[in-house]
Amino acid sequence: MKVLLVVNPSASSVTARTRTVIQKALSADHRLEVATTSRRGHATRLALGAAEDGMDVVVVLGGDGTLNEAANGLAGSETALAVVPGGSTNVFAHTLGLPDDPVEATGAVLDAIEAGSIRRVGLGQVDDRYFLFNAGIGFDAAVVEQIERRGGLLKRFAGHPLFVAAACNTWLNHYDRRQPAFRVTVRRVDEEKLGDPVASGVDGMFGVCLNTDPYTYLGSRSLSLSPDTSLDSPLAMVTMRSLSLANVVQVLVGALGFGNTPVSECRGVDHRSNLSEIQISCYRPVPYQVDGDYLGEASELTLRHRPAALDLVVPLDPPAP
User: Fold this and answer.
1) Taking CA atoms, which of 33, 198, 219, 265 is between 20 and 30 Å from 12?
2) Domain 2-116 class?
3) Which CATH class is domain 129-305?
4) How many CA atoms lie within 13 A of 238 on its CB side?
5) pLDDT tens for residues 89-135?
């Protein structure tokens, strides 16, 4: 097979030694080319070029942001995407069940390619940007913005503690928790027109549109907002109507799997699934992110499900004990 390895050298788990080992493993049985990203959006251009050149697989060694860029370059093509975790959180790699270690993950990817474990999966789309696992509107995007302001070097080495600290600081000092930020209207897959009397008109301060679950990971612990949502299902939308401390704690406890109250039943949470389209009408400019990548502020957003949009290399199921 013709394989392109896209490497983000700034990703937190990417070292010269790791990159060398992975290159040797991939080139043993495949025609390998290697490209290194140098700027924002570069992985999209590299992936798009690979698809145009007839590459069979693009393997991404980097974080979720680099992976998202590559997916945007490959969406709609016949070139498959493969994941090797190289970032600090690696949400999508965890979701697929890949090992944390990038060398071990490369072995799992090679096994999957050899077995032909490649399948077409759906993506989410916010305006013209695809996302693999989620798009966040409001609070979590404000957290990502605070982290990006601190610079890449701190993000590379501080990891999860930085995210926790930024979330607390954003909640206390950098996000308006007094009034709703946006209004959500949804359309289910089985509906012919936008909205319905139950799902329309939900005001929110923080919302997450999920293409798969979990939402993210805190260390090795998953934060699950919509357990039934997967790459084989339409979108789900989780909207928090309040960011009071009591509500945030209840949702966090439910997302971590403690207690008996799932997130969908938490106070102040609106959960909708099997969605084909979501309209977000903002009362003020609101930050948003896709797959952990901050994209700025918007006054209106349209999110859609795009079924069968991407070929994905899927790790083989581990053998039964």
Assistant:
1) 33
2) alpha beta
3) mainly beta
4) 28
5) 899 999 999 999 999 999 999 999 999 999 999 999 999 999 999 99
